[in-house]
Amino acid sequence: MSERQGSGASGGNSKSSGGQDASKKDAPAEDFDIDMDAPETEKAAVAIQSQFRKFQKKKNEKS
């Protein structure tokens, strides 16, 4: 079991990353020029929503 302690999303992350949050507040917001009417944008949105729905379904079935 000790092999898995350092792996995963929580491995290596500590609560001491508060300094990064402060720098995010100081940074100006980036403007994104995304054409919301473009077919590629619509396809990407549908793909993202599909994966999210699968994730939610799997998450709810686990409980």
What does this entry show, briefly?
The chain is mainly α.
Question: N-to-C terminal Cα separation, in Å?
Answer: 24 Å
**CA-based gyration radius:** 19 Å
Order of helices and strands: HH
Strand content: under 5%
Number-wise, the strands total 0
What is the residue-mean pLDDT, rounded to a whole number? Answer: 75
In helices, the fraction of residues equals: 40-55%
What class would the helix/strand composition place it in?
A: mainly alpha
Low-confidence stretches: 1-8
Largest sheet: none
Task: Name the overall outline.
Answer: flat
How many helix segments?
2
Describe the structure.
It is a single chain. The protein is mainly α and 63 residues long. The protein has two helices and no strands. The chain has helices at residues 18-26, 39-62. 0% of the residues are buried.
Helix and strand arrangement:
Blueprint: H1 18-26, H2 39-62
Task: List key phrases describing it.
mainly alpha, 52% helix, 63 residues, flat, 2 helices
